[in-house]
What we know:
With 338 residues, the chain is α+β, with helices and mostly antiparallel strands.
Amino acid sequence: xxxxxxxxxxxxxxxxxxxxxxxxxxxxxxxxxxxxxxxxxxxxxxxxxxxxxxxxxxxxxxxxxxxxxxxxxxxxxxxxxxxxxxxxxxxxxxxxxxxxxxxxxxxxxxxxxxxxxxxxxxxxxxxxxxxxxxxxxxxxxxxxxxxxxxxxxxxxxxxxxxxxxxxxxxxxxxxxxxxxxxxxxxxxxxxxxxxxxxxxxxxxxxxxxxxxxxxxxxxxxxxxxxxxxxxxxxxxxxxxxxxxxxxxxxxxxxxxxxxxxxxxxxxxxxxxxxxxxxxxxxxxxxxxxxxxxxxxxxxxxxxxxxxxxxxxxxxxxxxxxxxxxxxxxxxxxxxxxx
Length: 338
């Protein structure tokens, strides 16, 4: 079972967690103190009155499965002076470690940062903290130019909803996990993407494994946006025409955004990445089809795609009901706006 994550800067256990964090932090820096009252003032106020110290911020607590009290915390600082939000005070009590609390806290903090529309999130970590540093790097954080010049302090940043092209090996690696979940979520949500409901995860994973082979053959390109846990929450593929007289043409296929990640413009960024690559590699025309009157039509129209026509009863929705489909095209490097 997963830990329970809650937001509560006034929880009675929070002061103890923050106090323990700061006492260990002072010891590791070689400036150990015996009690919270002896901490430097800037840290002491956090442990004595966290609700006031973090009044403008998001404080998350993690309770292990089966436990009745939080054993971990993290703070997502509100953006200030135009800077990215910052993650601070990640702490899990020693007796509750190796239970996924730290990763769950980070995943929720990243999800909330992304939902706020922040383009990135940042944090600092002491260079000697090997385990936290390994966790941050596994979540996609990378070292950047320092904004804090204290010796041995590393500054890390993670772009949110970054779109990246997946290698065939990466598609294989994600096939049975994030990519399969994306496809199952789309079908569960009623999307007409070639499958009927219920779609089994194994069938979805097998489809992505075939996509990996097509990517290796150069027939299909894949872009994905990783979520807070590193698994894809959005994906799009570009399929190249297989005929000599269609070498100028490609098809946008399987533009999927998990329902938990919608509303942040991720679909538009995925589409733009595929379009840019298509143009850069010599394609001059893209086509796609989507269910008529679906939310996806608004995205394509806003991105400059032109409706070529509607075909009735073209494909069945996940429930098996035949629905009309609208065909779209886009000339690359040209303006199709009337």
